[in-house]
């Protein structure tokens, strides 16, 4: 490593501002930072954290996502193997079947579940990180910006919000749209006003709805249908919708149910939240406010009850473990770039997203998963929350000095 470090230091002047290879500085800096570590610290919002540099912030976020990644791989394989068992099929078709031939598709086998799930998750992730990384590289070379580890977070968040059966070309289109139009169009890292991973998912959701909704996309087995919990509840008996589910609250909390690959396990999200809060990276105010907002609306609807809407009659604690509420609360709403910066603004922002998420989920069956839309709308209004708080502080100070 000392020899490699010495070589990189000798090559550095060639990539400096006046060097012969200055245009390719982003590629050199990314390689040097990945292999040897970055010597730079941030000096501007929203990533000012004393001596903690952006690289370490983003790496900690990636580490916090690992429980969701592990659960995404295992549960994707578990759901597929359950389906194969139900259909009486020995293994999956195509190239996945050739790889799985050595291991029986048994849902009780940890190895079979992990391998089968990896055959779905890893190609999606590799397309996301490769295609998005190429776009990042192109824009950074044109602008002369450094490569940022922030993209490692975006490229991992996006696959976790997708179903296992999403076509790889749609993954490429989605991450391209998110990186170009939600990030680079506004100047790159720290300048985007919406979460790029969520924008990518929203684009895929509205551009190719057949691949992002319905009951045919959540389990990676051809000819097998399995609706998500929210879709089942939308058509459940009005008086007692929970009775229509074939799993318990504990199953939903652990994440052993069909859904987007990384969003089903509330437990995995809580493990990630613990790390983010311990490191001071995510805002506990946003998390607490979103939780209170979601619980408040769901409790109000549950107490009032509705004679024609089964989603209105779901107990509040069930809303917390269904859909992407926990995932959005921990990893999406807390994005420091797109969230407010004032403490009071964070409370208002979190309450707004939590309340709107459950409102969309209950009263718009066409979009039973309202977390994505609520967070994106919250991103748009985030500057307004800060503006209101700052103006209120200014008026208070003027009155106190009046």
Kindly describe this structure.
There is one protein chain. The chain is mostly helical and 402 residues long. It starts with a helix and ends with a helix. The chain has three domains: 1-37, no CATH class; 46-226, no CATH class; 259-402, no CATH class. It contains 16 helices and no strands. The longest helix has 34 residues, at 54-87. It is 61% helix and 0% strand.
For this entry, give a set of tags.
single chain; 402 residues; mainly alpha; 3 domains; flat
Short description:
This protein has helices spanning 2-11, 25-36, 54-87, 94-100, 110-143, 150-160, 168-182, 196-207, 229-234, 249-254, 266-278, 284-304, 316-319, 325-332, 343-363, 371-400. It has 402 residues and is mostly helical.
């Amino acid at each position: 490593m000392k020899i490699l470090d010495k070589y990189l230091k000798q090559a550095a002047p060639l990539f400096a501002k006046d060097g012969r290879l200055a245009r390719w500085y982003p590629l050199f800096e990314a390689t040097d930072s990945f292999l040897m570590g970055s010597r730079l610290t941030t000096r501007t919002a929203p990533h000012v954290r004393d001596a903690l540099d952006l690289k370490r912030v983003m790496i900690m976020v990636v580490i916090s996502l690992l429980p969701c990644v592990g659960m995404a791989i295992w549960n994707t394989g578990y759901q597929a193997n359950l389906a194969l068992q139900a259909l009486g099929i020995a293994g999956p078709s195509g190239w996945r079947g050739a790889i799985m031939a050595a291991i029986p598709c048994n849902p009780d086998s940890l190895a079979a579940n992990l391998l089968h799930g990896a055959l779905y998750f890893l190609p999606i992730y590799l397309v996301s990180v490769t295609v998005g990384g190429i776009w990042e590289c192109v824009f950074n070379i044109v602008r002369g910006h450094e490569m940022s580890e922030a993209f490692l977070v975006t490229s991992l968040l996006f696959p976790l919000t997708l179903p296992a059966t999403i076509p790889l070309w749609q993954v490429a289109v989605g991450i391209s749209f998110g990186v170009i139009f939600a990030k680079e169009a506004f100047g790159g890292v720290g300048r985007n006003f919406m979460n790029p991973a969520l924008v990518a998912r929203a684009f895929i959701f509205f551009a190719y709805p057949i691949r992002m909704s319905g009951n045919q996309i959540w389990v990676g087995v051809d000819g097998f249908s399995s609706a998500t919990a929210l879709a089942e509840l939308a058509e459940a008996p009005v008086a007692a919708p929970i009775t229509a589910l074939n799993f318990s609250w504990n199953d939903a909390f652990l994440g052993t149910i069909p859904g987007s690959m990384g969003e089903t396990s509330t437990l995995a999200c809580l493990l990630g939240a613990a790390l983010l809060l311990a490191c001071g990276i995510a805002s506990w105010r946003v998390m607490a406010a979103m939780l209170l907002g979601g619980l408040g609306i769901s409790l109000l609807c549950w107490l009032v009850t509705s004679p024609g809407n089964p989603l209105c009659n779901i107990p509040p604690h069930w809303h917390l473990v269904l859909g992407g509420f926990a995932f959005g609360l921990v990893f999406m709403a807390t994005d420091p770039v797109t969230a407010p910066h004032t403490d009071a603004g964070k409370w208002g922002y979190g309450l707004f997203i939590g309340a709107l998420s459950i409102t969309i989920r209950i009263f718009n069956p066409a979009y039973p998963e309202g977390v994505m839309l609520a967070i994106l709308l919250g991103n748009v209004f985030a500057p307004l929350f800060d503006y209101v708080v700052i103006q209120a502080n200014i008026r208070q100070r003027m009155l106190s000095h009046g």
